[in-house]
Amino acid sequence: MHGNTAKKIELHAEDTAVINEKYLDPEKWHKQDTTWALSLFGTAIGAGVLFLPINAGSGGLLSLLLITILAFPIMYYSHRALAKIIYASNSAEEGITGTIREYFGKKASIIFNIVYFFSIYTIVLMYSVALTNTASSFIVNQLHMKEPPRAILSLVLVLGLIVILNFGQDITVKIMSMLVYPFIASLLFIAISLIPQWNTSMLSFSSVSTVTTGTGYFGMIWIILPIIVFSFNHSPIISSFVMKQRATYGIEATDAKSAQIQKVCYIMTFSVVIFFVWSSVLSLTPNDLVMAKEQNLSILSYLANELNSPIITMAAPIIAFVAITKSFLGHYVGAYEVMRDMIIEYSKARGKDVKEKTVKTMILVFVVLTCWYVAYANPSILGLIDTLSGPLVAAILCVLPMYTIRKVPVLAKYRGKMSNVFVIVVGVLTVLASIKAFF
Asked: Which residues cross the membrane (predicted)?
């Protein structure tokens, strides 16, 4: 009896050793942790950062300080919450859609896909506007040529990007992903180059009147939340990140390891972005930032037009154009995949079999016409972020994880935390910002 028990214990120890050998030691920092921290870092910093200084600075010193205080906790706790609901799911390998289907059923996953599509596609539309404005500003201010007709310029740009993607989507996406780190390096370069241009006009609490007149300080928080949520959003990569940690360290260690890697990444992201924001804002005046908002330009295009610096004059708009192009293409790929899946699923539900070529043609026609129209109409980019992109991203990134943690039993251990209260408050206020904009 004792001999059999000893043998069983020995066999169990051997099995445990095999399992432990399968995973890396979560107590140590490994090469793959560095790789993922850099991947998250690169994904978290996109073209949205180019519009953050405008909202940050046009509200004066107080809005700048609020963004500095709120940026890290919003980015960290919201993405941590999203990671938690994914790695607790048995369908995590299917991404966030599979996770929602497991927790709430097929209808909920369909609703999620619709919201997710609009959250991506509004960004595609927004970058269509940004790309047209950047190109137009560069032609007029840097090349000193006559401004081309907006209808023609916007159509040429949209068609050019779609043609590039459809002739070599995989290669294009790969090249654009390679531009992530040069883009980050260029942001640091611009931020450092701007130091000689710094002035003290922003370092006055009286400058806050630029935005707070008629809205109050609570109104200012409402103004800055959508741009913070939007600028630091990188929710699409969280599913892949979580699955890799679960496969590398095991289910038990995934939570702690994910938190460790995310913390390192977000410290880097926060440092780079906030330095860029402060350097950009300190190089201009509150009135300059209000003008940049009215002209519907990214901060780099405005800096190129206003500062007497040959390097910034030429480099800034080119960096902006490449960054916006990269983000447009990346979001287009995501939007295309969601649209394709939705059309095919809808057709199957109605008993129809739609050919791949037909689906592709439908999507291309829709994308070209909508992007062309919106780019030509030239709506406010920051207005789109405040009323559509920011609130939709907040619904997915903040409200959804908190609702899931509250309702799903397997996530009960994550309830009752102060960070949950913070995330849900940020999420609700950001979603409500879209309603506030219409009143």
From this structure: 36-54, 60-77, 110-130, 150-167, 179-198, 218-243, 264-284, 311-336, 357-375, 381-400, 421-438
How many of the other CB atoms lie within 10 Å of CB of 389? 27
**From CA 406, how far away is CA 427, in angstroms rounded?**
15
Superfamily of domain 35-436: Amino acid/polyamine transporter I (1.20.1740.10)
Q: Copy the structure tokens of residue 303.
A: 């800096």
pTM over 0.85: yes
pLDDT digits (tens, 9 = 90+) for 36-76: 998 899 888 988 999 999 988 877 788 889 999 999 999 99
The 3-state secondary structure of 301-321 reads HHHHHHCCCHHHHHHHHHHHH
pLDDT tens digits for 82-104?
Answer: 999 998 898 877 878 889 999 99
Q: Could you tell me the two tokens for 54?
A: 């405008």
> Cβ–Cβ contacts within 10 Å for residue 149, how many?
10
Q: What angle do CA 125, 126, 129 make, to 5 degrees?
A: 95
314-348 burial, b at 16+ Cβ within 10 Å, e below that, comes to ebbbebbbbbbbbbbbbbbbbbbebbbeebeeeee
- Please measure the distance between the N-terminal and C-terminal CA atoms of the chain and give it in whole angstroms: 79
Question: What does the chain come to in residues?
Answer: 439
Lowest mean pLDDT among 44-53, 329-338, 414-423: 329-338
Cα–Cα distance list, 361 to 76, 336, 350, 364, 409 (Å): 40, 11, 20, 5, 44
